[in-house]
């Protein structure tokens, strides 16, 4: 779909109005030059009579150009905001495996660079239209002055246009390569910030990253973009040369039929005047081309991913269980250059049950958690809610049963989609989790996130509790907790969650607390090798800080 067609009707009408103003500005500018030529041709005899029309045309040019530029600024900024919103909606609306495959760098490039190139392309449209009208109007006036000489001029300009078109196609190839390299560059920028500590500790690693990784990518972007834009501007220089060739031909080349001096003056004035609009027109074309390339990249982002249906109203039936029935998943493991297969597995989580999931690194624990949460649709088998299959059309409804704190969690600084009454509960839980002296919720926002990783995990668990979902997944949650709060988590927090009727899946390596689970599940190489009940455990002690 083209960019213009994707815009709302109101913006398309604004573009039509702005385009009309741009064309009117160009037509008035040509008329002004024609008046100037007429005054010169009559040696000022018509000057008094043409002064008022000249002033009116000058005012019209100013008004039309101002109107066109203002409207196109409004259109470009509205389109920029709309495109960025659509990128975000398309990205988060895609299936989760596609989100993982797309990656942060590609989305960042689309939001920061590609969308800005599209806006820049829209903003130069009035320049293109106005100057195109000036060029066409001037050529029309030249034809009125002398058809034979106009024909020669058109032949030379046609040659220039053909050369420009060939170079334009070559330039687009390099600009597309630059866009692809820009995606990788965003990934390098992220690595620079995220890995700053490691780079500061190891100067050799720092130098290698700056030279070999970041430097290579920067050079790829620079080289491709330089080649593309250089081709454009070489073509522009050739076009300027052709203009002077036309003027020289008219003034100095031998002619079978001598031209009237007034016609020669008109030709010279028109060609000298037309050079600036034509150069402005040609200078604006690279921005249009980059905008077109950028929009094609944006349009391709997620184009092959079918958007998922949003969740419906929550089910009225009480929650009893979620399960995997012969479910499997498969993905490419880049580190080992091979595919990792999970399942087929059978697994059920019941309301009011604490299930510990254990296994070695790379055994598939987190993948299994994402599979039962509906983030990964099963390649085979079924997801079950209360014993009923959840098909692809109802996957969002199934996911609405889950809250999760994964090991690589993200903590938003606001309580998204929260009830104002949740603030008081959030602050009580913050105190309950021994963070009251460090952070609080005000106006639906955490007043700070300058906390340790373990403390931020506590906030993430608080947010998950506020969501009031019947199933909670905690992926290595206790790994960053101090010994005191780790003990509180296993002996007090988990039993409280069980008492609330939640099904809690805990991925853990803390074997000293395994006896506190209701069930223990062990996974190896993508297969569940053990699923057994744990003997009854003692009741938890009351929480002193809750008093």
From TrEMBL:
Protein's cellular compartments: Cell membrane
Keyword Iron-sulfur: no
Record GO terms (molecular function): ABC-type transporter activity; ATP binding; ATP hydrolysis activity; peptide transmembrane transporter activity
Lipid bilayer topology: Multi-pass membrane protein
Keyword match Transmembrane: yes
GO biological process: peptide transport
Ranges annotated as spanning the membrane: 51-73, 124-144, 150-167, 231-252, 264-282
Residue span, ABC transporter domain: 322-547
Alphabetic keyword roster: ATP-binding, Cell inner membrane, Cell membrane, Membrane, Nucleotide-binding, Transmembrane, Transmembrane helix, Transport
An example Gene Ontology CC term for this record: ATP-binding cassette (ABC) transporter complex
Domain ABC transmembrane type-1: 13-290
NCBIfam families named in the record: cyc_pep_trnsptr
Protein known as: Cyclic peptide export ABC transporter
Organism: Cupriavidus pauculus
């Amino acid at each position: 779909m083209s960019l213009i067609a994707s815009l709302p009707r109101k913006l398309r009408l604004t573009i039509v109005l702005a385009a009309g103003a741009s064309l009117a500005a160009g037509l008035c500018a040509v008329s002004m030059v024609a008046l100037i030529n007429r005054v010169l041709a009559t040696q000022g005899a018509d000057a008094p009579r043409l002064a008022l029309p000249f002033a009116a045309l000058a005012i019209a040019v100013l008004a039309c150009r101002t109107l066109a530029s203002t409207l196109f600024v409004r259109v470009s900024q509205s389109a920029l905001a709309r495109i960025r919103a659509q990128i975000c909606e398309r990205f988060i609306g895609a299936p989760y495996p596609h989100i993982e495959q797309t990656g942060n760098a590609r989305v960042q490039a689309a939001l920061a660079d590609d969308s800005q190139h599209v806006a820049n392309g829209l903003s130069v449209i009035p320049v293109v239209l106005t100057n195109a009208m000036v060029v066409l109007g001037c050529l029309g006036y030249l034809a009125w002055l002398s058809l034979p000489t106009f024909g020669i001029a058109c032949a030379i300009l046609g040659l220039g246009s053909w050369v420009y078109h060939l170079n334009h196609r070559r330039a687009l190839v390099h600009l597309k390569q630059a866009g692809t390299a820009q995606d990788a560059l965003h990934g390098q920028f992220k690595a620079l910030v995220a890995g700053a500590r490691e780079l500061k500790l190891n100067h050799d690693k720092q130098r290698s990253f700056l030279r070999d990784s970041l430097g290579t990518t920067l050079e790829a972007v620079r080289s491709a973009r330089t080649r593309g834009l250089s081709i454009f501007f070489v073509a522009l220089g050739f076009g300027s040369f052709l203009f002077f060739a036309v003027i020289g031909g008219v003034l100095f080349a031998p002619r079978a039929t001598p031209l009237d001096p007034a016609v020669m003056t008109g030709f010279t004035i028109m060609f000298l005047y037309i050079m600036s609009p034509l150069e402005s027109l040609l200078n604006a074309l690279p921005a249009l081309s980059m905008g077109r390339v950028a929009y094609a990249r944006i349009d391709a982002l997620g184009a092959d991913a079918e958007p998922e249906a949003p969740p419906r109203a929550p089910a009225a039936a009480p929650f009893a269980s979620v399960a995997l029935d012969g479910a499997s998943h498969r993905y490419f493991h880049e580190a080992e250059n091979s595919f990792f297969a999970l399942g087929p597995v059978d697994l059920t989580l019941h309301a009011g049950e604490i299930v510990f999931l254990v296994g070695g690194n790379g055994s598939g624990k987190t993948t299994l958690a994402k599979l039962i949460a509906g983030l990964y649709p099963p390649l085979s088998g079924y997801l079950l809610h209360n014993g009923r299959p959840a098909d692809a059309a109802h996957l969002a409804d199934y996911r609405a049963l889950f809250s999760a704190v994964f090991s690589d969690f993200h903590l938003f600084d606001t309580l998204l989609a929260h009830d104002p009454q949740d603030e008081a509960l959030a602050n009580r839980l913050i105190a309950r989790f021994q963070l009251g002296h460090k952070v609080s919720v005000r106006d639906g926002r955490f007043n700070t996130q300058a906390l340790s990783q373990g403390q931020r995990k506590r906030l993430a668990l608080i947010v998950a509790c506020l969501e009031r979902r019947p199933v909670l997944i905690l992926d290595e949650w206790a790994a960053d907790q101090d010994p005191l709060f780790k003990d509180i988590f296993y002996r007090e927090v988990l039993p409280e969650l069980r008492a609330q009727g939640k099904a809690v899946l805990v991925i853990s390596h803390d074997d000293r607390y395994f006896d506190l689970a209701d069930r223990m599940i062990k996974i190896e190489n993508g297969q569940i090798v053990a699923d057994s009940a744990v003997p009854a455990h003692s009741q938890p002690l009351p929480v002193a800080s809750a008093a």
